[in-house]
Amino acid sequence: MTTAPPTCDFTEVVLRTERLILRPWTEADIDAIAAACQDPLIQSYVPVPVPYEREHAEHYVRESSPRGRAAGTDVVFGVFLAATGEPVAAVGLHRIAGLGSACGGEGEIGYWTAPGARGRGYMTEAVRGVCRWAFAELGLARVEWRAVAGNTASWRVVEKAGFVREGTLRAFLVHRGVRKDAWIGSLLRAEWGLEGTE
């Protein structure tokens, strides 16, 4: 007997951590997204349009992000300081699959941090919050991480969250029209200490 998958509409999902609120982006956040995505480091590693225009942030907030949430395949969160409401980052769980599977599903974590918010542990805290939700609420068995090989800042974030780096995928990613090696890592539900829990 198979179990029906959980509801796949994640439109209203909001998460909270010690210092952060993770919620859907809104119209009021468009300028902050557009400003953050001017950062050369984000453009070097994240597949955002270059040059990044305000219209790209509008599409992200109004169309692509809500579409993924409603479909249950991609859940992108704006990351905000709970104390002030300041936007500091974005984190998403992408390519969600296998919900309701007896073996557990999987998804891929992705993120960027605004330049002025780096070095304070916000992204590791946000990644932990998303993984906690993915394992405890969605029943995922594995959360995967991939990044352009050499992106040590991205690796440090997930390493602090408990991810294990598994190796290098040769010429796996196409970024700005060039094939690049990718690092791959993962965090398993059993490693999170939730094995056997509801």
Automatic annotation (TrEMBL):
Top-level taxon in the UniProt lineage: Bacteria
MF GO annotations: protein N-terminal-serine acetyltransferase activity; protein-N-terminal-alanine acetyltransferase activity
Gene Ontology, cellular component aspect: cytoplasm
PANTHER family in alphabetical order: ACETYLTRANSFERASE (PTHR43441:SF10), RIBOSOMAL-PROTEIN-SERINE ACETYLTRANSFERASE (PTHR43441)
N-acetyltransferase domain location: 20-185
Name this protein carries in UniProt: GNAT family N-acetyltransferase
Organism per entry: Actinospica acidithermotolerans
One Pfam family per UniProt: Acetyltransf_3
